[in-house]
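Progress note, sequence design subtask.
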């Protein structure tokens, strides 16, 4: 009783008690009632009863020195469960029994076992030994490892998957469970549930040691052990990392027969993902850490992509650092330097192949998105014009505002990637390449000013240039008619005429002599509906051999014209990239 009323008592320290457990009762309950029948030194039964609360301490004492007819027993009644806890606690006897077993599992697997514990709820009675037997796959296995003369006892436990527990290390001290730590993913192949041929199970490793007993904190929630030792006592004191590493090595050995299947499945998952969805990683897979490829077979595409991307970034950073070191030639021989250089170039080549694979895969994704964009949706409607436009070139942007890989002009013509100026859905009046005041907005306008000017007289040159206009129409739009507002070909020619007549300039504002005769290229992207076909014939354009487009030259506008159906655009881009897709093992269609 004196110990109960003493804060931080060491009365039962030899049993692993810390003298603060009774205070935890009052964290969840308002009051505790204790009723205890005990035998005095002479063997006489005595009764002591009292209440305990955070505001009054111990009170309402009853001391009866002779309690005839009673049996030695103690009843502790917890009263006034606080709302925050009552809303979260399990309420059925089976749930309470399982929760209690999970919390006290160490007592059942440790040497000496646990006392008889029953959970009783009216007529329902559950014995925790029975619950424990239902939890276990097989008997626990114990082994001892040694680190710097310190012994650690490891108890390997296989629990049935129905227990709902994760793979874990359970750190114990002074006969008590101190904390649990998930080890899912920390041992290669230890992902999800394991299978022993008969049933699925989860794994727990209970770790105990006199070293842990000496360093457990009084509240038994943690240890006074550094995670990493980097001070003067690093050679003397063990760190948690050292202990954990040794424990995980033992765990890997104990579970090796079950982990091989998981490791193989994880590597097959990486192989499928990098082959079909992310080929950019394939050239550098051999440089990645082996344990990185031992992924959970059920990992999502997003998480696997992030994991591989981190590894690729680390590889790039290492390569960059090694590149700087390569420049330092100290006292090494020419042969050693050549060996270092050869190793560096091999890794650099792998990274270059990775970048190329990423670029090619990007094209495959864009083609797949374009194919979806030109199909009829579930609502029976086709995508809007701006959907197709954004795939080819972001709208209301210029080439100086857009990254190179955000523009997919290669869908139309690979040469469009090389331009002096490009504007997407910008008014002519806002373009620095023309003095036009028109508010008309070409879908895409491209100016090319070539590096080698044309010499027309001594000391006088004219810059060589060309203009490209691209008009994009909504899939299956069928309302083309005569007139610039209705005919996409006439629209493109109209834009070309305005830029020329109002004076074309370089982006820096220098006039382009003879701008009225700059060669023009007009591309119209649309479906070949009946109205479009009639307009093409009316304008004297010729049908392509595959019947999926029209082309021709208009001498009055000095312009080449090509009307490209979306199917022809898609098929042509696929054919031009087929060799690259085949090299990466990607389906062309």
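Output:
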């Amino acid at each position: 009783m004196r110990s109960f009323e003493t804060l931080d008592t060491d009365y039962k320290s030899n049993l692993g008690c810390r003298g603060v457990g009774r205070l935890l009762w009052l964290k969840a309950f308002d009051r505790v009632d204790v009723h205890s029948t005990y035998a005095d030194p002479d063997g006489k039964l005595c009764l002591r009863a009292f209440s305990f609360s955070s505001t009054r301490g111990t009170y309402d004492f009853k001391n009866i020195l002779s309690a005839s007819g009673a049996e030695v027993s103690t009843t502790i009644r917890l009263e006034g469960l606080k709302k925050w806890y009552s809303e979260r606690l399990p309420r059925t006897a089976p749930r309470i029994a399982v929760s209690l077993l999970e919390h006290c599992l160490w007592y059942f697997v440790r040497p000496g076992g646990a006392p008889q514990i029953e959970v009783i709820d009216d007529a329902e009675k559950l014995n925790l030994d029975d619950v424990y037997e239902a939890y276990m796959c097989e008997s626990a296995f114990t082994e001892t490892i040694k680190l710097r003369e310190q012994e650690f006892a490891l108890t390997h436990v296989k629990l049935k998957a129905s227990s709902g527990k994760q793979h874990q290390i359970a750190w114990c001290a002074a006969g008590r469970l101190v904390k649990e730590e998930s080890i899912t993913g920390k041992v290669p192949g230890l992902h999800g549930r394991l299978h022993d041929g008969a049933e699925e199970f989860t794994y727990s490793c209970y770790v105990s040691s006199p070293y842990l007993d000496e360093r457990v904190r009084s509240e038994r929630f943690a240890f006074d052990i550094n995670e990493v030792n980097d001070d003067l006592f690093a050679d003397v004191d063990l760190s948690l990392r050292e202990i954990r590493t040794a424990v995980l090595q033992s765990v890997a050995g104990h579970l090796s027969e079950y982990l091989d299947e998981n490791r193989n499945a994880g590597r097959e998952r990486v192989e499928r993902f990098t082959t079909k969805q992310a080929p950019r990683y394939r050239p550098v897979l051999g440089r990645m850490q082996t344990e990185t490829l031992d992924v959970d077979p059920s990992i999502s595409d997003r998480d696997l992509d992030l994991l591989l991307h981190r590894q690729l970034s680390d590889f790039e950073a290492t390569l960059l650092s090694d590149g700087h070191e390569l420049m330092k030639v100290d006292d090494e021989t020419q042969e050693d330097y050549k060996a270092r250089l050869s190793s560096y170039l091999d890794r650099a080549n792998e990274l270059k192949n990775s970048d190329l694979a990423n670029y090619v895969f990007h094209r495959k994704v864009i083609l797949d998105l374009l194919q979806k964009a030109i199909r009829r949706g579930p609502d029976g409607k086709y995508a809007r014009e701006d959907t197709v436009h954004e795939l080819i070139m972001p709208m209301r942007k210029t080439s100086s505002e857009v990254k190179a890989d955000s523009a997919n002009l290669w869908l139309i013509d690979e040469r469009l990637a090389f331009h002096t100026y490009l504007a997407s859905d910008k008014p002519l009046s806002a373009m620095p390449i023309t003095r036009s005041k028109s508010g008309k907005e070409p879908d895409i306008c491209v100016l090319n000013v070539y590096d080698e000017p044309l010499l027309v007289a001594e000391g006088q040159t004219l810059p060589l240039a060309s203009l490209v206009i691209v008009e994009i129409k909504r899939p299956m739009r069928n309302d083309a008619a005569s007139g610039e507002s209705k005919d996409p070909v006439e629209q493109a020619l109209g834009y070309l005429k305005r830029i020329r007549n109002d004076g074309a300039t370089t982006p820096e504002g220098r006039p382009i002599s003879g701008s009225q005769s700059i060669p023009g290229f007009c591309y119209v992207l649309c479906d070949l509906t009946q109205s479009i076909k009639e307009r093409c014939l009316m304008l004297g354009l010729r049908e392509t051999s595959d019947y999926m487009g029209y082309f021709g030259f208009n001498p009055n506008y000095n312009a080449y014209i090509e009307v490209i159906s979306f199917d022809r655009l898609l098929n042509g881009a696929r054919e031009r990239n087929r060799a690259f897709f085949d090299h990466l093992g990607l389906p062309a269609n």
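The chain has a mean pLDDT of 81. Work on this subtask will continue into the next period as scheduled.
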